Amino acid sequence: MAEHGISHSTREFVNAIVTRAAEDPEGFAEDLEAHRIIRDRELRLKSKRARLAHRAALEDRNGFGVGRQFDFRWGITKSFLDDIDRDLRAGS
């Protein structure tokens, strides 16, 4: 993966999240450890701009008020997860 410019921390994050999702697909959305991993990564990458941990950043989100659901690029994420699932089912 290094040849694609994917950092070690990104690989660790993806591996941790995919592992947790694969271990408990039904409970993944409520997995507190997965929540922690995601929150910690956002804090590392965005610091005070991290919407998951800083209310001011959440309220200042380009006209979106508090209470409106964000998709956090879910469409892109779902596409990646669908690709991984398809490859795993194919035995890749």
Describe the model.
The protein is 58% helix and 0% strand. It has helices at 8-23, 32-46, 55-59, 74-90. The longest helix is centred in the C-terminal third of the chain and has 17 residues, at 74-90.
Could you give a short description of this structure?
With about 90 residues, the protein is mostly helical. The protein is built from four helices and no strands.
The helix/strand order is HHHH
Helix-strand category = mainly alpha
Helix content: 55-70%
Shape field: globular
In DSSP terms (H or I, runs of 4 or more residues), the helix count works out at 4
Alpha carbon gyration radius = 15 Å
Poorly predicted runs are: none
Distance N terminus to C terminus?
16 Å
Q: List the domain count as a whole number.
A: 1
How confident overall, as mean pLDDT? 77
Bin the strand percentage.
under 5%
Number of strands: 0
